[in-house]
From TrEMBL:
Keywords: Oxidoreductase. Signal peptide: none annotated. The keyword Hydrolase does not apply. The keyword Iron does not apply. Belongs to the short-chain dehydrogenases/reductases (SDR) family. It comes from Streptomyces cyaneochromogenes. One of its GO terms (molecular function) is oxidoreductase activity. Transmembrane segments: none annotated. This is SDR family NAD(P)-dependent oxidoreductase. PROSITE patterns: ADH_SHORT (PS00061). One of its GO terms (cellular component) is membrane.
Amino acid sequence: MPVAIITGASKGLGRALAEALAGRGWDLVLDARTAEVLQETAAGLQVYGTRVTAVPGDVTDAGHRAGLVAAAWQLGGVDLLVNNASALGAEPLVRLDELPLAGLRRALEVNVVAALALVQEALPLLRASGTGTVITVSSDAAAEAYATWGGYGASKAALDHLAAVLGEEEPGLRVWAVDPGDMATDLYAAAVPDDDDPRPAPDSVVPAFLRLLDERPASGRHGAPSLLEGRR
């Protein structure tokens, strides 16, 4: 069975991706900071009959990252790494003239440094897979200038560039930065708590990720809405 590591997998998009992959027979290593919620998510996936290992912790911790890769090795290797865990930098979001520098450092550490560090940790197993794939979850804030989204957007833009370079340096892998578009997630609610406009559920964009896994296009950046439109 193929093996995936998914960070930020206890809820939202990470959980939706985990459910979809488990339904396809993937074995999973799941990460999140809140152990109780992560264990509940892992327990709910048992209905699919695949092996699911929950490893609670913070992706900025080197020992935790090593534990994720070790758990995947126990399941057979790493075929897919999804860097989904994210930090906003401020909750709710604020203008750049108010952005705490400690918050910006946290966003960069989680969204960029830890993501690259986990890739480095998993790279030998990804190379050995034969179908090694890295997905970094991006944002339209990485490419567009939205007021109050500057710190988060800058971190995602940096992550996009790392993904692009990794795709050039590792031609044997597929490396995709994927902008999922608007979603109703706890992260968005924390970012803009006063926004009551309805947004799509995370599971509605999962078919875009599955299309990439099915068709395996060249490494690059993709938007989920375009992938979903192309499938209609």
